[in-house]
Write a structure and sequence with these properties.
This protein has five helices and five strands. With about 160 residues, the chain is α/β, with parallel strands linked by helices.
């Protein structure tokens, strides 16, 4: 296994997208697809389920769709995904089908995550492609943003 290339600026951008999502009343999750060779962001996304009325508009899905459109490729071999929350089963499936090389995620999601928790999708024998996964990147900021969002939602004080 090669040494992972990681840049905090990519997770910082994903966190900024998560903040934008929260400002729109969406669960604060942001994602960016990165070309590690050129060190450029290929595409980005943030949760947009409420705004679009699409339950599949998770940050990862939005970013993967945008990356496929930007590159003209169905498979995103060699590209990496930075996302502020551990991907769910749907997003893990899309990551696998897109053949993303690596996934860097921020906060763990014990309840809905499917990478290091829950179904552990990439470890499933039916998973055709499993990316390298690195969790806990920017975890404190991502977890705090989620905690504040859901606390505000419970108390009726959305910002």
């Amino acid at each position: 296994m090669t040494q992972p290339f990681y840049s905090s600026s990519f997770m910082d951008r994903a966190l900024a997208l998560a903040e934008q999502a929260a400002g729109e009343g969406e669960v604060p999750v942001g994602a960016v697809v990165v070309d590690p060779v050129s060190r450029a962001i290929v595409a980005e996304g943030r949760n947009a389920m409420i705004r679009t009325g699409d339950p599949s508009a998770h940050a990862e899905m939005v970013a993967i769709r945008a990356a496929s459109a930007a590159t003209g490729r169905l498979r995103l071999d060699g590209l990496d995904l930075y996302v502020t929350l551990e991907p769910c089963t749907m997003c893990a499936g899309a990551i696998s089908l897109a053949r993303l090389r690596r996934v860097y995620y921020g906060a763990a999601d014990v309840k809905g995550g499917a990478v290091d928790h829950g179904v552990r999708f990439f470890a499933s024998p039916t998973c055709h492609h499993a990316p390298e996964v690195y969790g806990g990147i920017g975890e404190r900021r991502a977890a705090e943003m989620l905690r504040r969002f859901f606390q505000a939602r419970r108390t009726g004080h959305l910002e």
